[in-house]
Amino acid sequence: MKEAKNIAVVGATGLVGKTFLQLLESDHFLDSDIHLLASKKSEGKEVTFRNSNHIVGCLENFDFSKVDLAFFSAGSETAKDYAPKAVEQGCFVVDNSSCFRKDKNIPLIVPEVNAEALLDYSMPGIVANPNCSTIQMLVALKPLHDLFNINRIDVTTFQAVSGTGKLAQEELQLQIKQELQEEKTSSNIYSKQIAFNALPHCGDFQENSYAFEEMKMVWETHRILDPNIEIAATCVRVPVMNGHSESVHIETTEQINIDTVKDCLNEAKGIKLADGEGSESYETALEIDGTDLVHVGRLRMDLWNTKRLNLWIVADNLRKGAALNSIQIAEILFV
Question: All domains of the chain, ordered by start, with CATH?
Answer without folding.
Answer: 6-130+322-333 (3.40.50.720), 134-317 (3.30.360.10)
